Amino acid sequence: MNKESARKKAKELIAKMSTEEKVSQLLYEAPAIPRLGIGEYNWWNEALHGVARAGRAAVFPQAIGLGASFDPLMVRQVGSMVGQEGRIKNEIYRSEGRRGIYQGLTFWSPNINIVRDPRWGRAHEAYGEDPFLTSAIGTAFVRGVQGEDPEHLQAAACAKHFAVHSGPEATRHGFNAEVSEQDLRQTYLPAFEHLVKDADVAGVMSAYNAVNGVPSSCSSYLLRDILRGEWGFDGYTVSDCGAVHDIFERHHFTDTKVEAAGRAVSAGCNLNCGSMYGYLLEALQKGFVTEEAIDEALENLWTVRFRLDMEGDADGAQTVDRWLRLSPKLYRLEEQAAEESLVLLKNDGILPLKNPERIAVIGPNARSVSVLEGNYHGTSDHYVTLLEGIRAEFAGSQVLGADGCHLYKAQIEAMSHVPDDQLGEALALARACDVTVLCLGLDPSIEGELGDASNEYGAGDKPSLLLPESQRRLLHAVLDASDRVIVVLLSGGAIDLQEDDERISALVQAWYPGALGGKAVAGLLSGRVNPTGRLPVTFYHNHQVSWDFEDYSMKGKTYRYFEGRPRYPFGFGLSYRYLQLSEARMEDECVHVLACNPHSAAVAMPLQIYVSWNNPSLAAPLRQLAGVTMIRLQAGEQKEIRIPIDSYWLSLVDEKGHRVPHEGEILFTIGDHQPDERSCELSHEPLLRLSFKAD
């Protein structure tokens, strides 16, 4: 049913509930109320890059890889497939009388926090460091998940973590992020605003941390004044899991748990992931919350539940048939998404590989399934590791594999007591083969969320941008043994190879590429796949990341404010074939560009449009991404491309947080990378420039 009807029905239901029943429905494990015909419902489900933790499901590239695609249309298709598969799985579970955790239709995804620090362990859950790209990719994902039907939600997406959340993980439960109104409105909030206004996202999850002294889960400034007052949000809000408890226990913002529960509901946190709302009856008696506030929270929650239409009977057999018909589409999209996520950062001409007789595939990530999955993942029926993908792609070559080293420990076999116990095998293969593919990086067991990942250094954040020492030794030794080395990095973000970056022949950033990641990487190496991925984060030199991890000021961070020379810039990536661009003009609030494919094969290229401000009256970023689209042209095809430019991204934010239109000259740069010196040096692809006087 539509929102209006669902809200009316929610109000009618709430009027029939006792106070005790009302409170019970504000916990994520909402119990059944048989006398009202209400079944139990567990709100907690995950679908960051595929339906997660609920049995067999598609595993798309981790979110950072989806961001690297720079292709909102493809990501919308991914979201749609996630929503469809989620609906199918929910109906299968309901047909068997199951309504537990990870079986509902309220997905606590996507994560749209800004990656302001490359050390953050959860950076791979986000879409990158740029507010525009995060808004565009996040909006596309939400629209796909929630579906096209205005009367019903296919599934309910949830934007998280609101707000100003990007590490450090070790102190997240009690950390206070101090941020200026200018940075808040120019960097940390735009993606949330766009998912609310443009995607009509059903849910918003508050963050663990405090913002300027107030825990996010009880911040009426965030949850009421901005989210509902300024943006008109009419969905439900939920605390991050355990965050309401943190209000009392870690932030010491209240004197009791009872007050913490009451303050959270009063501030606008509707649903508790945790058990703290069990104190609400006492909070009501002591005046920390009103019944009107409880009713308001219930109305938001039940409006979403009614729009999801989950109360009817489900036919398990028919639903399984639908799943079988959907599976081939899921498989094809998994492969496309994996291909589009890959970023070719360096190529001295070795790629694509031309019929090598022998290929050595070496490294701790060569045959790993974990690096395909990322975190918050489902379980696939058809994983293709890098070693398997290369062996299948190069069927006419001899493909030899070796681990070479442990992911981070000194030796692979614990009983060997000898560091680098299998390095000799790797070096022998590297010397004997025509080319070596070195599969290095991290994995989600050591890079990720506090409590979920636990590396040898701490809570899942990276202590630096360097590879673990065991892999640095392997890389250096292999480079001494062979002068034809291709490095494939699998990680959630920036890694700096330092001086060894100059010695390798090619470098592919593969992120955590999904179930078919090995097939996609192999296709890039052979040339079957023309790489189109671009970096959604800056790859700094390790020594350049010298600021305090807890400093949330944007000064000197991300491509928008960083004035140094990075190793590889945001928006950068190489391809084997490019499109030719010409005749750029601004018309009807759109940039128009003529694109031509001069090649004998189809070509896709992610077009990027950056804006900069000439003599701005307010503090401005160096540049800001303001438009992206994936151009696809057949051999010899020519087409005029039209890219809408939202005036929101042409405006600036003053010190008080007000968004102000720029009245001077605005400059557009159009191409497949940003206009900084380092990108131009690495790419050699020309850019188009366009200027106009803002009205």
How would you sum up this structure, described in words?
The protein is of the alpha/beta class and 695 residues long. It is built from 20 helices and 23 strands. The chain has a 6-stranded mixed β-sheet, sandwiched between helices. 56% of the residues are buried. The mean pLDDT is 96.
- From the structure provided, what is the oligomeric state, counting identical versus distinct chains? single chain
Q: What is the CATH architecture descriptor of the largest domain?
A: 3-Layer(aba) Sandwich
Rounded to the nearest angstrom, the distance between the terminal CA atoms is: 42 Å
> How many independent structural domains?
3
**CATH-wise, what's the superfamily of the largest domain?**
Glycoside hydrolase family 3 C-terminal domain
Poorly predicted sequence stretches spanning 5 or more consecutive residues: none
Give the helix level as a range of percent: 25-40%
CATH topology of the largest domain: Rossmann fold
**Dominant shape:** globular
Q: Kindly state the number of beta strands.
A: 23
Q: Tell me the Rg in angstroms.
A: 25 Å
Assign the structural class, choosing from mainly alpha, mainly beta, alpha/beta, alpha+beta, or little secondary structure.
alpha/beta
What percent of residues are in strands?
Answer: 15-25%
CATH class of the largest domain: Alpha Beta
Query: For the largest beta sheet, what order do the strands appear in spatially?
Result: 9-14-13-12-10-11
Individual helix count: 20
Mean pLDDT: 96
Major sheet: size, sense and barrel closure?
A: 6 strands, mixed
